[in-house]
Design brief:
CATH topology of the largest domain in chain B: Alpha-Beta Plaits
Structural class of chain B: alpha+beta
Shape of chain B: elongated
Strand order of the largest sheet of chain B: 5-8-9
CATH class of the largest domain in chain B: Alpha Beta
Distance between the termini of chain B: 104 Å
Number of strands of chain A: 17
Largest sheet of chain A: 6 strands, mixed
Oligomer: heterodimer
Radius of gyration of chain B: 27 Å
Number of helices of chain B: 10
CATH architecture of the largest domain in chain A: 3-Layer(aba) Sandwich
Number of domains of chain B: 2
Number of strands of chain B: 9
Number of domains of chain A: 3
CATH architecture of the largest domain in chain B: 2-Layer Sandwich
Helix content of chain A: 25-40%
Strand order of the largest sheet of chain A: 1-14-13-17-15-16
CATH class of the largest domain in chain A: Alpha Beta
Radius of gyration of chain A: 21 Å
Order of helices and strands of chain B: HHHHEHHEEHEEHHEEHEE
Helix content of chain B: 25-40%
Number of helices of chain A: 15
Chain lengths: 442, 295
């Protein structure tokens, strides 16, 4: 019996169309659009000006505080303007536009280096580098990595969990990365174990990625303290709290962090970025993006530079098909529909999903029939139907007492609701009111 | 006979005991309340709209009676008249404010502001604003889901189905400000009502550069500053490519209206200008008269 989390969860059709497609390298785009708010927390501060020449990997926006991250030039070129561009939030946000210098040899260089497994830096140097090199959680939440790795003296840590779950349907970015960069990821895990001073690490992978599990088992050196765990396929297993519960049986307290139960969780993409930063001095400038959809000619996985317009990626898979109804950044469960294809790839873009009419439209909402489906699938043990009604009626303090803030916004409730009620839409709004971000009217 | 007598005595005794208990309790736990509070509450409109900042008229009355200085407290619904009564009843100084009325600073109807995407989800401005900038390319304008209309407790607003924009019925508007709070985009502003409800204001909030603003909406303010040149009173300022007419300095001369190349300045309830083509007649007292070019 494979491990999994006990409460709730669903199993939507996997649709992993691109799991057999090797990661292709996107060419360097002519122009890159680099937003300054690519991570959770304070946006970075721009430190370049118009007409400045930038070299590849140069810091162009400096971390704006503790929970923030540096942003580096993904290409060598010239800053043409500081402009407002629509990003995944659906709003125009400040962004740095860099025109690529095609003659610069640094742009032509393919960032593939032989494996370097010897760790030479001290733990402090490693943590400093992770912070300097703009590493954020690449699983989708884009939480600055150095914040998670900052362990206070009174906190006890005994296990590093590596998240290779990729429970979102359609997405295969992490899967391909695990297959193609197995050794690098293993070195990355050792780097983190060294930096954190923990002797134990577990790589959690869902059982629909048998090849990745086997490859890790083959390559993983004996006695290194790294364990590979196959997990039952269930959404949202990639959620931190769900993964910790599934692998170690520890319950992360509500409003708490995995560190409260002695665990740090990092995504495989983040681990690879840390390997690149520590071993090859390379800041976070590119990531794996799955471009997929049933109507696409050639769905595939790409290494894309941060700031590449999504339109370029869509062109590389044969253009946007006629039947397209929605283009989503991220997976179908938690992703966000995009307003325009000019939106650039950011550190958090794990996939671009192109969906047609049959999957895109939401049903007409009807009355709640009190079937309790949403309650039974909620992985956090909440009552989504109640939270929605409370938000709709403006009873925010009651909603807060019902732990609305612990919702991880996985969307399982909206997915199973037979009455097509927009549960998550309301809960998300309720959360923003309870957090005090939005005025109390709906 | 006995049983009747017994029950009468028993019930009388019970009544007396209960009466004594109630008497003692009411004396012992008596809360003294200033009779002025009830008196002031009588004077207030009783709409419980929270426009004054207090949750209801009762708590506003408590505040009025309780505070020494009430010059910063004001009931927008009752206006100067009610505040004068309050002042007489309490013998305290009250502020005098010009009556205001809500105006919708967006003219982005479906015709002039084309839709570029489609939103499927709960029809609420607050929720859709959380997700993205709206169905059009203007991220400053009206979302058209009517949160302001839902927030109005005086029936003073409705959604115009033809334009998809909210309309304020000026006669009913009490300027409680609930619509202003409800709007996630700050589109609704309280402006002085003046005599005959004359208003001149910029019906746009788009802060983008002229070309981009115009592309998203043909009646957007492009920040060209022609209105500044036309204004004899320096009442107009431009910040972030957007003009704003300060009601404090505006004398309602209307000189800025015809010079606006995108017709984004709105004038309401003025008599028709003396031009060859007469503007639409003013029917309901709240109809927005589209600015007419003088040329």
């Amino acid at each position: 019996m494979l491990k999994t989390f006990p409460k709730g969860g669903i199993h939507p059709p996997e649709n992993k169309l691109t799991s057999g497609q090797p990661i292709r390298r996107m060419g360097i785009p002519k122009t890159v659009y680099v937003p300054i708010a690519q991570h959770i927390g304070i946006p970075a501060e721009i430190i370049v000006e118009r007409k400045d020449k930038v070299t590849i990997g140069q810091v162009i926006a400096r971390s704006g505080g503790y929970v923030s991250s540096n942003i580096h030039a993904p290409v060598a070129g010239t800053v043409t303007k500081l402009d407002m561009i629509v990003d995944t939030s659906g709003y125009k946000k400040q962004c740095i536009v860099i025109r690529t210098d095609e003659k610069d040899p640094a742009n032509a260089e393919v960032p593939e280096w032989p494996l370097k497994s010897e760790i030479t830096l001290s733990p402090e140097e490693i943590l400093q580098r992770i912070s300097d090199y703009g590493i954020v959680g690449l699983g989708g939440a884009t939480f600055p990595a150095h914040v998670k790795l900052h362990i206070k003296k009174d906190q006890h840590l005994d296990c590093l969990i590596v998240n290779g779950v990729e429970c979102e349907p359609y997405l295969t970015a992490d899967h391909r990365l695990m297959l193609e960069k197995t050794d690098e990821i293993l070195v990355g895990i050792r780097i983190l174990m060294h930096a954190l001073g923990v002797g134990r690490a577990i790589i959690g992978i869902e059982n629909n990625k048998r090849d990745a599990i086997e490859r890790f088992r083959e390559r993983c050196p004996k006695g290194s303290g790294i364990q590979i765990a196959a997990l039952q396929v269930k959404y949202p297993q990639g959620g931190e709290k769900q993964l910790v519960r599934a692998l170690l049986g520890r319950e992360v307290p509500k409003n708490g962090l995995p560190l409260d139960v002695g665990v740090v969780v990092h995504n495989v993409g983040t681990i690879f970025a840390i390997y690149q930063a520590v071993q090859h001095n390379r800041p976070l400038m590119e990531r794996v993006v799955t471009v997929t959809g049933k109507h696409l000619q050639a769905p595939s996985n790409f290494w894309a530079r941060i700031g590449t317009p999504i339109a370029d990626l869509l062109e590389a898979v044969g253009g946007v098909p006629e039947a397209t109804r929605k283009i989503v950044s991220g997976g179908p469960m938690m992703g966000k529909a995009l307003k325009s294809t000019d939106v650039p790839v950011t550190k958090g873009t794990s996939g671009i999903l192109v969906i047609g009419e049959e999957e895109a439209s939401r049903g007409e909402p009807r009355n709640c029939i009190r079937c309790g489906e949403c309650v039974s699938v909620c992985p956090m043990g909440l009552e989504p139907h109640l939270l929605m009604n409370l938000t709709e009626k403006g009873m925010y303090s009651h909603a807060s007492n019902e732990d609305i803030l612990t919702c991880i916004e996985c969307g399982s409730c909206s997915y199973v609701c037979p009455s097509h009620r927009p549960l998550l839409d309301y809960i998300r709004f309720g959360k923003s009111v309870v957090k005090g971000l939005t005025p109390k009217t709906a | 006979m006995d049983s009747i007598l017994n029950s009468v005595i028993l019930l009388t005794l019970l009544g007396v005991v209960a009466g004594l208990v109630l008497y003692v309790v009411s004396k012992k736990f008596h809360v003294h309340e200033n009779p002025l509070i009830a008196q002031v509450e009588e004077l207030l409109p009783g709409a419980n709209c929270a426009g004054c900042g207090s949750p209801g008229c009762r708590s506003f009355a408590e505040k009025l009676v309780g505070s020494e200085d009430i010059s910063d407290l004001f009931c927008p619904v009752g206006g100067n008249e009610v505040m004068k009564w309050v002042s007489e009843a309490l013998g305290k100084e009250v502020a005098e404010k010009d009556p205001t009325v809500a105006v919708v600073r967006c003219q982005g109807s479906c015709e002039v502001r084309p839709k570029t995407s489609e939103y499927q989800g709960p029809r609420s401005c607050a929720i859709s604003a959380l997700i993205y900038s709206g169905e059009t390319d203007c991220q400053y304008g009206c979302l058209g889901d009517g949160d302001c209309v839902a927030a109005c407790s005086f029936d003073a607003m409705y959604m115009d189905e033809a334009t998809g924009l909210p309309v304020v019925i000026t006669d009913k508007c009490t300027s409680c400000g609930m619509c202003v709070t409800a709007c996630p985009r700050d589109i609704i502003e309280m402006r002085p009502k003046n005599k005959r409800d004359l208003k001149v204001y910029v019906g746009c909030l788009n802060e983008e550069k002229g070309g981009l603003a115009k592309k998203a909406c043909s009646v957007a303010c492009i920040g060209c500053s022609k209105c500044i040149d036309a204004c004899p009173k320096d009442a107009i300022t431009i910040e972030n490519n957007l003009a704003y007419i300060d009601p404090e300095y505006c004398t309602l001369c209307r000189k800025c209206v015809p010079v606006c190349p995108t017709h984004s300045i709105i004038e309401t309830n003025f008599p028709p200008r003396k031009v060859k083509v007469a503007p639409a007649p003013d029917t309901a007292g709240s109809v927005t008269v589209k600015p007419q070019s003088d040329a």
